[in-house]
Each structure stands twice: as structure tokens, then as C-alpha cells.
Amino acid sequence: MIRTPLRPLARILRARAIGENPDIIERENLRLRHEQMRDAARARAEVRLLILGVAFFVAFSTIGARMGTLAATEPSEPRASASGAEILAQRADITDRNGRILATNMLTHALYAHPKDLVDPARVARDLAGIFPEMNAEDLTRRFTDGRSFMWLRKVLSPEQMQAVHDIGDPGLLFGPREMRIYPNGQLAAHVLGGASFGAEGVHSAEVIGTAGVERAMDARLRDPGQAGTPLELSIDLTVQATVEEVLAAGMSMMNAKGAAAIIMDVRTGEIVSMASLPAFDPNNRPNPVLPKDGEPGDSPLFNRAVQGVYELGSTFKIFAVAQAMELGLVTPDSMVDANAPMQWGKFRIKEFQGKNYGPLLSVTDVIVKSSNVGTAKMALRIGGLRQQAFLKSLGMFEATPVELIEAPGAKPLLPPKWSDIVTITTSYGHGMSASPLHLVTAYATIANGGITVKPTLLKQTAPRPGTRVMREEVADAAVSMLRQVVTRGTASLAEVPGYEVAGKTGTADKPKRTGGYYKDKVINTFASVFPASDPRYAVLVTLDEPVETSGTEPRRTAGWTAVPVAAEITRRIAPLLGLRPVVEAAPFDGLTAVHN
After folding, report:
1. Residues with catalytic annotation?
2. Would you say residue 98 lies in a domain?
């Protein structure tokens, strides 16, 4: 940097020559130098202020943009990405359709230990074994003294157990607060709710996750922090559910069955008002899925027979063949069909129950009323295998049900690998393919809904959802009328409930052996029904596994003697709970007696 001297020699000499004071030149140069320095400093300050302003603008713009992005996105629960991160344990309640609690949360504590901080490990081990019978004092002592610095002792404590541990008074025993899932109604609706357990755990909180049922299927919704204060409303009616389970348990015992299932469905909305499966379990203490080596999946109390049970459902399928034949214009309710039994088809012989012969001719209505295998088979052959498959597929019989249960996707119908003529015949009366009780009750609800499909759901609906028409309304009405006559003069006479016009169909199917063939003394019995027949509102299905009615001189295993009486009692008990008043038929005029006071 070149600096101008404050007293330049040339100017000083010139000033002296003319008699001026040289100090004036020095002061003038000094003033100019200070002004230059001041201008330079101001320029530097302006540049720094500009840079600082730009930095602040960028920072606040970034923060504002991020805040806007967060505000516009759906909230999601944070996940622990490192040890020590906070675990969110919020989980929404589950209620029935009337707001009654089915599942909620309760604050509890877990017990853990810092073994290195224990004053007397042996005494602590003995005291803990006295409080918790499942703990072994010697094993605890060994673990307390093997050098570890942390160990869980118990995931959940009752208030009494917590106080007892407090009384031990050792600083190495510590408590961690957490929420746990509780089901105040015990076993009620156990297979619907499923259960919950702890996921990620920390000493200060634990993640609650669904393990089965609705808890697992709707886990994301229940754990959503944005909806933690909004209960998940199910279509289940707690009072109806309790009644169904009570009657079903009594019927299972009386009919000596090894298992049972029942479903109540609103035929207009597809809402499942009740779903029961026995044997059941308590979701507060969900057992481990242990099954004996020679046992069936249905032997486990965790098995939901209503959804996971895939069975040949017998004669309950016959109404589908008849309804399709009417829809195609092949028959009317009064058409006569060949029902001469037995029927020979190639090497196969189609017989009626107990070798009966309802032929040579039966009306289509009487084919259903008398439950004729041969009459149904003849109509199925006229329909043809391709059209039969298409119709059953439209009823949802070829895919897993879309209900909100984690078990549902795995319960697909079992279909024959090749749809030959004999499969067309046997499928028409409920053999050769297998489906779940939920598939069946949904198909019956479609018929009762005027031929418009319904989608089964466990979530409360505010209005019916649009479905697909699979048969004309007059065909559906005719089918319901036939089912009504099955009760008034057919195989389901014990299903009659005065005032409620029950319409339904029985189904008795031999249980298949694992090695092939069928048992002669083990059956799956089903009764599928709708009521009231004049204006169907609800579908009721009852399935019993290996029932046998023993009140008579000989054991009876047909659905008319086993599943039907149980379904009738369920209908009798739940109809008033559903707000349906009985329709009292007027007595004939000539039967009235005038009374004068």
C-alpha cells in the first residue's frame, strides 16, 4: 500500500517561498487520509451487513419452508432410531358400535434391576421368588452375580406386586412406567379383538403393538398419534355379542361339539354385529399358539373358526344353484325337475340322505325344502361349470374375505384343481370346495339384500355401501321365500321363532380325513338363515364341529337336530336386542270368541 506523506517536500518549499504556514498542508493531508479510512471502513461494514442479512434470510426461509412442509404432511409416529430415544406408547381405544369400551390402556410399571447396585443379591433373589412364583431364587442369584449391568425381571406389575417389591428396599431394583393394553370384557369378542403385546421397550416406556385380530389389522390406525384420542368404532354390539357367545357355548356343550362359530350380519350394510368362535381365550392373557402333534388347527383356542375355518358347508350351497338357475331363466320356483335317486354320472353315484328318493319329479321349491342332492345336481348341469364358477365368484366364494382381521387374507376357499362335471355336481350341494362361515353368511346376506352384494366389515358404517347386482330382485325374493319354506315345512322346522319369520337352509357335511376320504361319524353342521323373511334385516349363521345330539335313543348328527336349535335360540334372544319387534299374525276370524263383561 502506497501512502501519501503528510508533509510533501515540494509543497512545503513552495509554501515557505510564498510565506504560507506549512502546518496547514499537514492538517489538510491528515483530514483527507482520515476520510479515506472512514470510507473504506464503511464499505467493509456494508458488505458484512449485506452478507449477514442474506444469511438470516436464507435461514428463516429454510425454517419457514420446513414448517410448511410439516404442516402439510400426515402425522406419523416417530420411531426410535438410537438407544435411549423416546418410545411413543399411545394407542387409541376400541369401542363397540354404541361406544362401550372393548379395549383401552392402563398405566402400569415394569421391573428391572441393576445387579451391580444390589446390596444383597441373594436376599433380593429370595424375596423376589417369594413375590413371583415363576421366579427361581437360585437362578436369580446366579444372574445377579454374573457381571451383567442390566436385566429385565418382569414386564408388567400389579399395584400389590409393586408395593411388595418396594418393601424389599434394595436400590438395585427399579421400576419403569408404561402403558399396557387391557380388555375389560375378558373373553368377550376375543377373536375379533385379537390382542396386543409390547414391541420396542425402554426403561421409561414401551411400544404397544397388535398381535392378532383387529388390533393387528388396524395397528397403523390405532397407533396414529393424530387419532389417539378418537376411538376405533367397531360394528360389534357388545350386548348382542355377549348373548351370542352365551347361547353358542351352551349349545356347543349340549350338542357335544368340539368347536362352534356364529356370525350375525346386517344384510344391508355388511356390518358384522357379532362374531363368535369357540373355544375362546382371554386377550388379557393370550396363550402361546401350541398345538398337539396330532391335533387340528381348530383345536387351538386362538383359531377363529368363523373366518379361518374353511369347511365343506354342505346343503347350504343348494340355494346358490337354484338362484342362478332362476336368474338364467332355466327354471321358476314351480318348475318340475328330475329328482329320481340315485343318480349315476359316469362312475359316480349321487344319492340322497339315508338313501331316500324324493323323485321322480320335484318342484324347484321342494328341491330346496326337501334338500334334494339329485334335483340340485340336475339344475347345476344345466347351468354348466363355467357359469357356476362365475356366479360363485360374484358372491365372493373364490377369494379371501376383505374383513378387517389379520387372519382373513390367509383363509382362502379351497377350490378343486379342475372343474369337471362331477365337481359342478358336488359343488352345487356343498361338497368338493370349501369356504369359511364368513363367506357363506356374506353370500346369504347378498340374497337377502335383494341380490346386491355386500362387503363384510367389522367397522361401524354410517350408510350402506354400493354393491354389485348379481341377481334380479325378484329372483332374490323367490330364493328367500324358498328358504322360509325350509323352516315352515322342511328340514329346519326347529328354527321357527314366532314373530320373526326365519328363513334358512341346513347343511350337514362329513369331515374329510387327512389321509383321504371322509369320516362316517364326524360332521360339520351349519345353519345359515335370514330374518324376517318379509323384509330381511339380519343374517345368522351357526356352525358346529363334530356335534352329536344324544337325547333320543340313537345319536343324531344332522344340522336340523344340532345347529338349527342353537341358531333358533340365538335369533330368539338377539332379535329384541336389535330393535326388531315380533310380527304377531292375526288369528282367523272364525277362531275369535266374543266376550261380554
Report:
1. 315
2. yes
